[in-house]
Amino acid sequence: MTKHTWDDEEYFESDFDPKRRQTLDMLARGGLFAGLSTMLGGLPNLSYAQEDEVVRIGYLPITDATALLVAHGMGYFEDEGLEAEAPTLIRGWSPLIEGFAANKFNLVHFLKPIPVWMRYNNKFPVKIMSWAHTNGSGLVVGGHTDITEFGQLGGKQVAVPFWYSMHNVVLQYALRQSGLTPVIKPQGEPLAPTEVNLQVLPPPEMPPALAARKIDAYIVAEPFNALGELKAGAKMLRFTGDIWKNHPCCVVCMHEEATTARAEWTQKVMNAVVRGAIYASQNKAEVAGLLSKDGWGYLPAPAPVVTRAMTYYEDEGYTQIGANQNAAEWQNGRIDFQPWPYPSATKLIVEEMNKTVVSGDATFLADLDPQFVAEDLVNYDFVKAALDKYPEWKNDPSVSAGDPFTREEVLKL
Fold it and tell me: Structural domains in the chain?
């Protein structure tokens, strides 16, 4: 495990060894079953439902996992009569996918395009159960650059956390709108002035890479933007929630078989998760301290970093540089916690994924009907019942007073 030190704070980069890295890189390129079926003896024939009803959470150390972590830390699973193991921190999307596929975890948060890729490219029976949060990400640029707008990213190196990520989708939308072309080339290969070279880095590796000038910018979930600002000389260029209004990022996922075989258990799990999201929405500063290494310790970042990541948004400095141009009109936060999985957003994601450059074979996207995905990928029943039980979710400014279950998507640079 590599350790970085900035001032008096310690930050851990990654737990990957080179051999494991090769395996996970293969998974990230789309060969989920190819790698895991050999390891697990024929993965497609495995049962994905746990034999017991213990809640086993896998998560990345990002604020996207807040609803799950609050549900555990506040004892909401126990309130539902469930046994829940301590959540397992994973430092990259590929190993979290691997652990979920191997049935090590039965409750996870994934970047929303990941279950699209898993279900329709790899035929993995994953279900989206709710949104884990909205907004909560940004694009930061290195202090060694003079970049002040997207159009100046031409010829630069930019890191994304995973090819199938909201970050990659939103970033490439913004690049296209700015007249730039996203490409995936070997590091060191010459770039045209209008090309932006993308690479995948696990979130914990991004601030050190920016500080070392190995990349010029990165787009990722919090608290790694806040960490970059405070410890790696990063400058916020634009919040993603200021480009796509109240966009989903991470979603709560479960194995489909578990949801059908144990409906009562599933409902209890979702009751706890929704309750966790509502509490986080109403108590962001408190929750930031609890999640930090100075509180419950679910996130390795100190409280000031997590607090910045969850509360520091409508600042005059951000307004002056254009990082939060729509904050006053849209009334969103740096991160928000609204659990309802709007079908309109799922349809837009599928449409945008078809325009997004990724490594590996993405031909499966061409045959996907957005309406079908919205109906097939997401289970609305359990989250709807939980929201009916806890109607205070409607107090969120992003929820329409007329019809809280529908909305119009707003995407603009």
Answer: 3-134+248-301+335-395 (3.40.190.10), 137-246+317-328 (3.40.190.10)
